[in-house]
TrEMBL record:
Residues 24-281 form the EAL domain. Coiled coil: none annotated. This is Diguanylate cyclase (GGDEF)-like protein. It comes from Paractinoplanes tereljensis. It comes from the Bacteria.
């Protein structure tokens, strides 16, 4: 916004902003210790086939239990980790832990286990030269295949530059699938979808919110268009943030096959997510 209009736009430095900078600095140094102190853990939000009601997969979501602050939301500490570069070791921990957990589920539940785990990866991680080798070695360590992993990236990652593009290409060639997260909110051009080896589009929750509550025509149109786009391009589409049956029904009618949201299941601890897999064939209760 500060660049708009062509003229220099001055932003007043409010005391509140100073407070925020200070908090971020402190949060950053605390986050530094969070990994070694075992304060991070993962929750797993199930992804369902919304046509059959069966469990399809799960997204690993990082949590931080701070000894004093209590639970800190990833919406608060991920941006701090991204700015400081701490996202690189933090993200490496998340990747390893998520794949370790998938290997445990496979051992415990066999064919009932989900086939792949979704892991969010920040652009900072993709810029690290060793990223692809590291993923390959963690997969090998846990006896997993590249097809057991879905890497979730944002649209801005795809537009980042040559090195990141090459990393994404290498992951894809290895057999790791790529999902474009929060799809529809970024500013990437649709032609990126043809230029990049994307496999999954995750419709952002904001468009799902527009469905059935208020029937916002603009957001409804985006939701429907993304389903069509995915179909034409041969990609799979996942609707995120489904909170009601009305939204679920409407998205299914639009052509969504996969869905994720509090209406079906919130992010769960690993053992509870495992219980869904033990109940194979899983038919969701929603
Ligand atoms: P995301 O990747 O788009 O993940 C989906 C977020 O939406 C999660 O929030 C999830 O709990 C929430 N959600 C899912 N269904 C519903 C719903 O029906 N209603 C509502 N209100 N929310 C729903 P969470 O876990 O707080 O994560 C927020 C964001 O933080 C994630 O958005 C992702 O961008 C980032 N994040 C989380 N874990 C990681 C990680 O390990 N690495 C990186 N780089 N980013 C992460
Ligand atoms: Mg995600
Ligand atoms: Mg998302
Ligand atoms: Mg999101």
């Amino acid at each position: 916004a500060a660049k708009e209009g062509g003229k220099a736009a001055w932003v007043r430095f409010e005391p509140r902003m100073r407070q925020e900078v200070v908090n971020h600095a402190r949060l950053g140094s605390e986050l530094h210790n969070a990994i070694i102190r075992n304060e991070l853990f993962l929750m797993y939000q199930p992804v369902f086939d919304i046509v059959t009601g069966r469990l399809h997969g799960a997204e690993a979501l990082v949590r931080w239990k701070h000894p004093v602050r209590g639970f800190v939301s990833p919406g608060d500490f991920i941006p701090v980790a991204e700015r400081s570069g701490l996202i690189v070791p933090l993200g490496a921990w998340v990747m390893r832990e998520a794949l370790r957990q998938l290997s445990v589920w496979k051992a415990e539940h066999g064919a009932g286990a989900i086939k792949a785990i979704n892991v969010n990866v920040a652009v900072r991680q993709l810029r690290e030269p060793g990223f692809v080798d590291e993923v390959a070695s963690v997969l090998a360590e846990f006896g997993l295949l590249p097809s057991n992993l879905v890497v979730e990236i944002t649209e801005s990652s795809v537009a980042d530059g040559r090195q990141v593009r090459e990393t994404l290409q290498a992951l894809h060639e290895m057999g790791v699938r790529l999902a474009l997260d929060d799809f529809g909110t970024g500013q990437s051009s649709l032609s990126l979808l043809r230029a990049f080896p994307v496999d999954v589009l995750k419709l952002d929750k904001s468009f799902v919110d527009g469905i059935a509550d208020g029937e916002d025509r603009g957001r409804l149109a985006v939701a429907a268009a993304v389903a069509q786009l995915a179909e034409y391009l041969g990609l799979s589409a996942v609707a995120e943030g489904i909170e009601s049956e009305a939204q679920l029904d409407r998205l299914r009618d639009m052509g969504y096959r996969l869905g994720q949201g509090f209406f079906m299941a919130k992010p769960l601890p690993a053992d509870e997510a495992g219980m869904l897999m033990a109940a194979d064939p899983v038919v969701a209760k929603y």
